[in-house]
């Protein structure tokens, strides 16, 4: 090798090393300040309460506080959108609800839900169901369907937002039942429950933020959406028991901006996995019939790729793709 080529090669290697060094040093010292965890639903609901416990546990593992910021609206996709402009340094992470995987089919976006997020860890999923006020003349799902058929488009139900899993699953259920419903979106469980209890809605589809109101006798559960009945509400049938091939638990986890260093992703993964295993987090989930659903970074990335394809089929089936 000529002296000139040797000098150029040495200079190139030195330049590469100088670029890699800050990333390596950053990963070694991470975290050196608080981390922000953006979640997709308002304060006080099941997501907020359980994620705050997870954040508290993870902060202890990381040696820095994990501070929750609520960004409700847009079908639960605002945290993922926030990751598109955040620095890829691990100090901003966000909850990734299932709605993130369908947003590209319903809304014009300039980012890719799979390629433009670094998937860290999946932590849990929801227990869903449909409820009505306890003084409603509708006593069970059979009567719900009968009323809807007799009054097309007049039976109102609320959810925690357009194109969320409660909304789309109810629309799929209505399609299979041959009924038309009137959907009213809300930003979160607290607003939804206030509207239902205040007589502004006839029914609500949501995760089990409605559980305390059922236990106090104010609401009645018509159905639940898991593969088996909920332990707290053993009298409420699953959708499968009612004859519908539908199971929905809407797994969700935590992502970081694209380009976040792998060592930083690993540190975050390990801390949140440790946080998931703490009894305090399992107990917080149990308040809402939720359970830990763990996927590591590679599994969660593969889940994202697979779910994007499945959500396209659902959006197409419901005729909700942009341009329809």
Please provide a written account of the structure.
The chain is of the alpha/beta class and 324 residues long. It has two domains: 163 residues, Bordetella uptake gene, domain 1 (D-Maltodextrin-Binding Protein, domain 2, 3-Layer(aba) Sandwich), CATH 3.40.190; 97 residues, D-Maltodextrin-Binding Protein, domain 2. Helix content is 42%, strand content 18%. The strands form two sheets. The chain has a six-stranded mixed β-sheet with strand order 2-1-3-10-4-11. A five-stranded mixed β-sheet has the order 7-6-8-5-9. Helix 2 links the parallel strand 1 and strand 2. Helix 1 packs parallel to helix 9, helix 2 crosses helix 9 and helix 6 crosses helix 11. The chain is globular. The chain starts with a helix and ends in a 6-residue tail after the last helix. The model has no long low-confidence stretch (mean pLDDT 92).
